Every structure is written in structure tokens, then in C-alpha cells.
Amino acid sequence: MTVAELIRAQKDTGFSFELLPPLKGNDINRVFRTIDMLKEFNPLYINITSHRDEVVFKNTEKGLFERKVIRKRPGTVAVAASIQHKYGIKVVPHIICSGFTKSETEYALIDLNFLGIHDILVLRGDNSQKERFYNPGDESNHYAIDLINQINDLNKGKFLDGTLVEPFETPFSYGVAGYPEKHEEAPNMESDIFWLKQKVDAGAEYIVTQMFFDNEKYFNFVDRCRKEGINVPIIPGLKPITLKNQLTVLPKIFHVDIPEPFAKELRKCKDDDEVKEVSVEWCTMQAKELKDAGVPMLHFYTMMASKSVRKVAKEIF
């Protein structure tokens, strides 16, 4: 079954979470330890993020700067395959436009097909850290809808060079991202939902939201999507805060609001341990309300928060 089919088959709210590939030079055991910590809650699937190359400048012995291109977190496809092989849990690697050419994407999809991985999450991806504005490059897909079109062609047996073959025995099934508080570059929510509907109409089978800390933002987002004819499952994304500086960092990076009652309690915290306690309580409250509302899944972002996610999950599942 595809992820979309598994989601629709849920009789009760399911559990899933997102992992990052190890930093370059680190082994995969940290990833495995996180899964070992959370597998008791029977995750329906595990998302594996994808990361573009970044340009860095390093001092040389001559006092000059040397420009280097590095990928700090390589290995998305291999990590996904390792997890599926070791645990037998369905994996959903991210496939992104940003930083990848269309050819690189095609090769990655061919590899995933060979590995028996056919569920993916399709995303535009972020700017390079050195870019003020999004610049995907001439050889890359510019937006998620372009990437979707490439995947749809491949599902029909059409490669980038025009070669036509028998379609893969199992086509790729994919979800996309949604933004309850609007994508940072969208001029307004109506425009954001318009483009989201284009992706669903093109074949996206479910939506996973950006993290949010106010459930009303999610409920309103779902209502607006339904009114526009978007009827696929919309999975809420949750993240426990673990550091006091995230009170300002998360809104800046992810363009999300932190409700004042929550922010007020975080400001009272003397250290990060207290922050974790307050945030676990808040996230648990969010999760319980969402589950009571009948959401099909609860999806957790685990970066720097796997222990907190476990505490929340123990209260919910």
C-alpha cells in the first residue's frame, strides 16, 4: 500500500515522524537510535529530509578565501533504504528542486525504484544560505509543480531525454507541503492555496503541513482548503521546542507564530530543561486536541527534539 492508502485506511490517528540524514562524516547509528526510541508507537512511515549543496569559503595558507561546494547532509536515498531494510517501516524520502538538476533528480528516482521505494514527498526546497532570494538554477525544476510534472512523466515511462520505456511496475506516489500560516513568499493565503490545489490536481495524494503551534491556524487552513476543493488528507506537523532561543529562531526561520500564552510560559523558563517541560505540555495539548478532532495522522519533526517527541507520543498513542 502507498502512504496515501495507509493514511486513508487508519481507523484512529496514526503516528509518523521526520528524520535528517547524518552530518557528513557521522555514521547512521544516531538515526537508528532515534528510530529505536520511537518505533514502539508504530510509525506508519518515516520521512527523510533532503539537503542541497552549500557554498562555503575557507581561509587558505596564503590568507585568501577558497570557495568550496559541500553537502553537509548527503545520503538521503541510502538512509531511506537502510531504514526500510533494517526496520521494515515505510520510508518517504524528500525529493526537492532546490540544488538538484533535473538529471540528478531522475537518477535519484531511478535508484529509489531499484530499491523498492516509491513513496516520496515533493518539495521546492529552501534557498541556499548564501542566497537572499530563491534561485534554483537553469537546469533545475523551479517549483514543486515542475518536479511533479517530471515525476508524472517518469511514471508514464518518459525520461528527460525523450526516451520512452515501459512504465515502472510500481509508480511513484507522493505528498506535498502545506502552510497553515502561508508560505513566506506567497503574496497572500488565497494565492498559496491556489498553487497547493494545482499540485493536488496534478497528482499529490496528501499534504503534510509546516510546523505550527496554534491549532486554530491548522483548522482554518483545512477549512479553506476544503472550500477550494482540496479533499486529500491534510496531516498536521508538530514540533516540541527544546531551546529557549527557539522562541525567536523558529519564527524567523520557519515564519510561524508562537501564541502568546505559550510564549509567555517559555519566557518564564530559567533554562532549556524547563523549556522542554513546558513545550512537551503544549505539544501534548495540541496533539490531544487534533486527535480528538479526528485528524488521520500526527507528524512530528524530531530535529533536536526526539526525546520530547517520545514524551508526547507516550501521552497520545
User: Kindly state the mean pLDDT as a whole number?
Assistant: 93
Count of spatially separate domains: 1
Helix content range of the residues, please? 40-55%
Class from helix and strand fractions = alpha/beta
Shape: globular
CATH architecture: Alpha-Beta Barrel
Q: Which quaternary structure do these chains form? A: single chain
Strand order of the largest sheet: 1-2-5-6-7-8-9-10
Q: How many DSSP H or I helices? A: 11
Amino- and carboxy-terminal Cα gap: 22 Å
Tell me the name of the CATH class: Alpha Beta
Per-chain topology:
Layout: H1 3-9, E1 14-19, H2 29-38, E2 45-48, E3 54-59, E4 65-70, H3 76-87, E5 91-96, H4 102-114, E6 119-123, H5 144-155, E7 173-178, H6 189-202, E8 207-211, H7 215-227, E9 234-238, H8 246-254, H9 260-268, H10 272-292, E10 297-301, H11 306-316
Parallel strand pairs: 1-2, 1-10, 2-5, 5-6, 6-7, 7-8, 8-9, 9-10
Antiparallel strand pairs: 3-4
Describe the structure.
The protein has one domain (3-316): TIM Barrel (Alpha-Beta Barrel), CATH 3.20.20.220. Helices cover 41% and strands 17% of the residues. The chain has helices spanning 3-9, 29-38, 76-87, 102-114, 144-155, 189-202, 215-227, 246-254, 260-268, 272-292, 306-316; strands at 14-19, 45-48, 54-59, 65-70, 91-96, 119-123, 173-178, 207-211, 234-238, 297-301. The chain has an eight-stranded parallel barrel with strand order 1-2-5-6-7-8-9-10, surrounded by six helices. The protein has a two-stranded antiparallel sheet with strand order 3-4. The model has no long low-confidence stretch (mean pLDDT 93).
